[in-house]
Amino acid sequence: MNALMIVDIQNDFTPEGSLAVPHGDEIIPIVNELQKSFELVIATQDWHPRNHKSFASNHQERTPFETTMLQGLEQILWPDHCVQGSSGAKFHASLHMEKIEAIFRKGMNPEIDSYSGFYDNGHKKSTGLSGYLKERKVKNVYICGLAADFCVFYTAKDALREGFGTYVIEDATRAIDQNGFLKAKYEIKALGGKTIKSKDILGPM
Ligand code: VGL
Ligand code: ZN
């Protein structure tokens, strides 16, 4: 079984949002079309408490995009984003939700960030996603969504680590930083993952 994993297509990551991914909204029609080709579709949702330590606003005299240490890991300090219950945390209104069977939330622990849909950044706590996919007999995961250089990248790395055939759909993701995405693609391929285009699934449109 193949699963489509839709990562964090939330208002705060689209151009109106507080942590806008350039052109992030442009992938949504492609993601909606892709959903029709999969038997199983799941989504992840960044879901932070207001006091989350990945927010620059929760540190004294720090501004967004500076780095700090958190739980022994280097941490980029982000603008406040995807605060639980806020409109920024909602899925983008144009994303089709009907086929999404399960939503895995992440980033709830204020002490550690969680880019991957599988584990927090310290690999201490699982979201249950890996067990869910295994129970559903999933062998391959096709990953799309936002942002290519953070949550899509970390989700792909964990998918490989968990033994799934891992495909990142390049034109169904957008990066915060283009260079970051180039590095991410290189690393995903080095770990045995593949990067593909939506037309490889949909055929020429
Ligand atoms: C993300 C930074 C902080 C993402 C989430 O979804 O890529 N990036 N939180
Ligand atoms: Zn976040």
From TrEMBL:
<comment type="similarity">
    <text>Belongs to the isochorismatase family.</text>
</comment>
<keyword id="KW-0479">Metal-binding</keyword>
<comment type="pathway">
    <text>Cofactor biosynthesis; nicotinate biosynthesis; nicotinate from nicotinamide: step 1/1.</text>
</comment>
<dbReference type="InterPro" id="IPR000868">
    <property type="entry name" value="Isochorismatase-like_dom"/>
</dbReference>
<keyword id="KW-0378">Hydrolase</keyword>
<feature type="domain" description="Isochorismatase-like">
    <location>
        <begin position="3"/>
        <end position="197"/>
    </location>
</feature>
<keyword id="KW-0662">Pyridine nucleotide biosynthesis</keyword>
<protein>
    <recommendedName>
        <fullName>Nicotinamidase</fullName>
        <ecNumber>3.5.1.19</ecNumber>
    </recommendedName>
</protein>
<dbReference type="GO" id="GO:0019363">
    <property type="term" value="P:pyridine nucleotide biosynthetic process"/>
</dbReference>
<dbReference type="Pfam" id="PF00857">
    <property type="entry name" value="Isochorismatase"/>
</dbReference>
<dbReference type="InterPro" id="IPR036380">
    <property type="entry name" value="Isochorismatase-like_sf"/>
</dbReference>
<dbReference type="GO" id="GO:0008936">
    <property type="term" value="F:nicotinamidase activity"/>
</dbReference>
<dbReference type="InterPro" id="IPR052347">
    <property type="entry name" value="Isochorismatase_Nicotinamidase"/>
</dbReference>
<dbReference type="GO" id="GO:0046872">
    <property type="term" value="F:metal ion binding"/>
</dbReference>
